[in-house]
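Hi support team,

I submitted a single chain yesterday and got back a structure, but I'm not sure I'm reading the token output correctly. Could someone confirm the output below corresponds to the sequence I sent? I've pasted both exactly as they appear in my results page.

Thanks,
R.
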Amino acid sequence: MRDSRHCSGSGKPPAGQAAREQGNAGTNGRDHTGQSQSFPPRQPGAITIGAMTRSAIATDGAPAAIGPYSQGMRVGNLIFTAGQIALDPATQQVVLGGVTEQATRVLENLKAILEEAGSGLDRVVKATVYLKDINDFAAMNAVYDQYLGRDGDEPPARTTVEVSRLPKNALLEIEVVAEA
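Hi R., thanks for writing in. Yes, this is the structure output for that exact sequence:
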């Protein structure tokens, strides 16, 4: 089986790739002064980027964490939220009603977290929805569309799955990734 990194069709890496894979990026193992250098071998496909800062996001506009986690984290230019269930931030209790009411509360919680981070629902690029009953998909989707449908613009990528149980017997949980 041919290594997919070798695109020339000959089975050999393109010119310079072998050197880069060995960590010397075509410098023949020498630095700018001509001194010999030693590089650790690079993992195939690994990309080294500058250190990214990360910071926790916390707001009173969403329920306090009910475990050892943050409401959200900002890492570089991305915001990752913890999964939100339909907890009222004021009471820390699950809101009354069905999936429509719970989906509304969940999306309001997510909106508060993103806004605290200087972002918003309009900057969401990925959502993951956990439903206790997949038969609630249409009702959840109607509320989701009001918040994330984007009126003809490209909506975020989404995964929706049915799960056997959620914290506090909630009917759904949603987490998102957004641009800062």
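A quick pointer for reading it: Helices lie at 17-21, 99-116, 137-148. Let us know if anything else looks off.

Best,
Support desk
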